[in-house]
Amino acid sequence: MKTTFFLFIVAALLLVQSLRAQKFSQLDRLEDHKFQVYYSHGNDERARLIANRVNKAKNYFEEMLDFSPSISLLILSADDWPKYTNFPVYGMPHYNGDSILIVAANDNPFWKSFVPPHDQLPDNLSEQIQRVYRAESGELSMQPFFDLLAIHELGHAFHFQAKLNMQRKWLAELYVNCLLHTYVAEMEPESLPALTLIAKMVLSAGTKNLTYTSLEDIENLYYDIGQKYPNNYGWYQFRWHSAAGKIYDSDSAQINRKWWNTLKKRSENIPDDKLLTFLESEIGKSVADVMRYWNRDTIK
């Protein structure tokens, strides 16, 4: 009986892999990875760069968290994007809930929308921004930042597949940004400027042009904001990126494992009036401070 059940499971897994391969048959496939990598034609170099980084990060997180998710990585052109995802904004990295990480292969209007005119660059950051984000064409490009976000999406694969109750959508986003910042700081410190400067630049513009800024807004309207107000959603992500850097500086890499282990043991939902105390007592003050000072920090 056990042998029959085992063979059934193996057959089912092979069928899933076969169906997935058929689904992505119009894309090129990158070999020699422990996970499936598919990409749009003509993006071989980009696919290798992103896949190698995801592979390195996956190994790093697996050792840290003692968990191994199953993933497939898609690196898509603008033409292929609507064929493989329903997400309307080309360039917005996302995790589709079926273990698939989706990122853009090319620079795009969404990425460019975060590049201010030269005369509007923050004076204190202008020189660094032009050095870190200048493309070979001479123009500023946010690609060095957005390429790192495949690791952010990888973080979602970990907590979704481990079935952790992240308690709030915004806490899930904060957590994967902490994973991302930790990976870059520990394994690719040369990429820290690309990760952190864009957040400083966007946040320096203030909130006067934003529709939503509170944690309650993003919790209640998460999907609407992401799809209908992508730049407003981006502002939230930059707040979480900035907070993740502070959390890492305060508590180092170990906070990620402590956070993970705490949530593994706490599956029930925590009510709003007890959430702050839970974060401070069970995870850490640096995490609780994100909630404690969020509205104060948005006042410009």
What are the salient characteristics of this protein?
about 300 residues, alpha/beta, Neutral Protease, domain 2, 5-stranded mixed beta sheet, globular, disordered N terminus
Query: What proportion of the residues form beta strands (DSSP E)?
Result: 5-15%
For the largest beta-sheet, the strand count, sense and barrel status come to: 5 strands, mixed
The CATH H-level superfamily is: Neutral Protease Domain 2
**CATH fold label:** Neutral Protease, domain 2
User: Strand order within the widest sheet?
Assistant: 1-2-3-5-4
Low-confidence stretches: 2-19
| Morphology call | globular
Write the topology of this structure.
Blueprint: H1 2-23, E1 28-30, E2 36-39, H2 44-65, E3 72-76, H3 81-84, E4 94-95, E5 100-104, H4 109-112, H5 126-132, H6 143-146, H7 149-161, H8 169-187, H9 192-203, H10 215-220, H11 222-228, H12 230-251, H13 254-264, H14 272-283, H15 285-292, H16 294-298
Description:
The protein is α/β, with parallel strands linked by helices. The protein has one domain: Neutral Protease, domain 2. It has 16 helices and five strands. It has helices at 2-23, 44-65, 81-84, 109-112, 126-132, 143-146, 149-161, 169-187, 192-203, 215-220, 222-228, 230-251, 254-264, 272-283, 285-292, 294-298; strands at 28-30, 36-39, 72-76, 94-95, 100-104. It has a five-stranded mixed beta sheet. Helix 2 (44-65) links the parallel strand 2 and strand 3. Helix 2 (44-65) crosses helix 7, helix 8 (169-187) crosses helix 12 (230-251) and helix 14 (272-283) packs antiparallel against helix 15 (285-292). It is globular, with a radius of gyration of 20 Å. The N and C termini lie far apart (66 Å). Mean pLDDT is 91; it is low at 2-19.
